[in-house]
């Protein structure tokens, strides 16, 4: 049996352990509030979730999901193209297109599947994809599946992108793909400059708006709106600020019609359960009607950012709720995270391959629902642990 008589699996895992990169699952149980996490039986203040607006446990979303579960059942029973396409799926697609100010939308079962489905069906053997060095893993995998030539340009380095576009002129179609907000660095892609280059060298722009949907732009509609730069294709997920689950793509009607017929991760995947779709619709209602949520989030982001910079942390990011605190050494980062737990804060260490070698970090994130006291607790804990481990 694989792994029992031949020990190569154990040996591979031992190698991962030697590099300090062994991954263990932590178990989350229900906890009292949306800002808390019960991890392996201990209650912590959550400081690393993608639930930026605190909507994942919102009563209104939960009630909507329960009501929908009672009428539609727990599973969707089939792919969107067979038995899984409910009126709610169609309604959400209309809604997300309007939310993103685009002609049409298609809902996938996750953001990961949306990226691999889009890239693998849009780009082919004769094409080139120019991809930012720090793009999400699902983009990297989508590039691999596409059979197109993929070229990585240095992170947000527009001169490098220009050079690579010049050398890519002989490809049939050219695509530039970038995260709108970089998941591990928290900075915003320079879409204006990317657009200038795309127009000059004839390339399409695809933006992964996973971390900006609900956070940036008017009503939280994302990076393109925030920077006022229209793009060709937007990919996103409901699993971050929206607080639910699932992925989407928005763009022209022709694009969406094409993806519906070509994207294998759409065609062959069981549709999302209707309860999730209904909760997502509710979440978008709340986000669009309650602009204070984004403002509250921004205020907290600025407050904490200024403090952490004053303490002397090597802090990346910018206007987003993602605070990458670079520690560098992997073991020291793990120690930092363990010490934070002793202070009642849950913020796991992020290590390679999620981030480049030598850039292990704590990915602290802020939620709109964090109270001032929560922010103070976070700030105090980071200062204390930072001093103790000589990070600051
Ligand atoms: N793109 C980015 C930038 C992400 O951070 C993530 C999730 N970590 C995804 C795509 C994948 O989305 P999902 O979790 O919905 O599969």
TrEMBL record:
Top enzyme category: transferase
The family this protein is said to belong to: Belongs to the class-II pyridoxal-phosphate-dependent aminotransferase family. BioF subfamily.
Pfam families: Aminotran_1_2
Pathway where it operates: Cofactor biosynthesis; biotin biosynthesis
EC nos: 2.3.1.47
Domain Aminotransferase class I/classII large as annotated: residue spans: 48-380
Matching Gene3D superfamilies: Aspartate Aminotransferase, domain 1, Type I PLP-dependent aspartate aminotransferase-like (Major domain)
Subunit structure: Homodimer.
Catalyses which reaction(s): 6-carboxyhexanoyl-[ACP] + L-alanine + H(+) = (8S)-8-amino-7-oxononanoate + holo-[ACP] + CO2
GO biological process: biotin biosynthetic process
Taxonomic classification: Bacteria, Bacillati, Bacillota, Bacilli, Bacillales
Membrane spanning stretches: none
Keywords annotated in UniProt: Biotin biosynthesis, Pyridoxal phosphate, Transferase
One function term, GO molecular function aspect: pyridoxal phosphate binding
Keyword Glycoprotein: no
Functional summary from the UniProt entry: Catalyzes the decarboxylative condensation of pimeloyl-[acyl-carrier protein] and L-alanine to produce 8-amino-7-oxononanoate (AON), [acyl-carrier protein], and carbon dioxide.
Modified residue annotations for N6-(pyridoxal phosphate)lysine: 240
Gene: bioF
Keyword Transcription attributed: no
Protein name: 8-amino-7-ketopelargonate synthase
Required cofactor(s): pyridoxal 5'-phosphate
């Amino acid at each position: 049996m694989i792994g029992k008589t031949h020990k190569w699996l154990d040996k591979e895992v031992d190698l991962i352990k030697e590099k300090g990169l062994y991954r263990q699952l932590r178990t989350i149980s229900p906890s009292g509030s949306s800002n808390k996490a019960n991890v392996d039986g201990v209650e912590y203040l959550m400081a690393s979730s993608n639930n930026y607006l605190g909507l994942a446990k919102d009563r209104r979303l939960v009630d909507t999901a329960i009501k929908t579960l009672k009428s539609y059942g727990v599973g969707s029973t089939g792919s969107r193209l067979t038995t899984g396409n409910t009126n709610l799926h169609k309604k959400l697609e209309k809604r997300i297109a309007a939310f993103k100010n685009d002609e049409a939308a298609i809902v996938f079962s996750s953001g990961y599947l949306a990226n691999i489905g889009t890239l693998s069906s849009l780009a082919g053997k004769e094409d080139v994809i120019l991809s930012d060095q720090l793009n999400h893993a699902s983009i990297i995998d989508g590039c691999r599946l596409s059979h197109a030539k993929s070229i990585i340009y240095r992170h947000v380095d527009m001169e490098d992108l220009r050079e690579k576009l010049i050398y890519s002129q002989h490809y049939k179609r050219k695509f530039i793909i970038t995260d709108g907000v970089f998941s591990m660095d928290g900075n915003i892609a320079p879409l204006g400059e990317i657009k200038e280059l795309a127009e000059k060298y004839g390339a399409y722009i695809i933006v992964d708006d996973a971390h900006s949907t609900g956070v940036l732009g008017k009503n939280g509609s994302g990076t393109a709106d925030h920077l006022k730069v229209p793009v060709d294709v937007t990919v996103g997920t409901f699993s971050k600020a929206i607080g639910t689950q699932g992925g989407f793509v928005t763009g022209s009607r022709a694009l969406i019609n094409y993806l519906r017929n070509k994207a294998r991760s759409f065609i062959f995947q069981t549709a999302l359960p209707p309860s999730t779709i209904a909760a997502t619709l509710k979440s978008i209602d709340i986000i669009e009607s309650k602009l204070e949520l984004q403002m509250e989030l921004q205020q907290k982001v600025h407050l904490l950012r200024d403090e952490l910079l004053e303490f002397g942390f090597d802090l990346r990011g910018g206007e987003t709720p993602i605070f990458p605190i670079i520690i560098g050494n992997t073991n020291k980062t793990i120690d930092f995270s363990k010490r934070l737990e002793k202070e009642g804060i849950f913020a796991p260490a992020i290590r390679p391959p999620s981030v480049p070698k030598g850039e292990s970090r704590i990915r602290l994130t802020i939620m709109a629902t964090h109270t001032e006291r929560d922010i103070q607790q976070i700030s105090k804990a980071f200062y204390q642990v930072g001093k103790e481990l000589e990070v600051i």
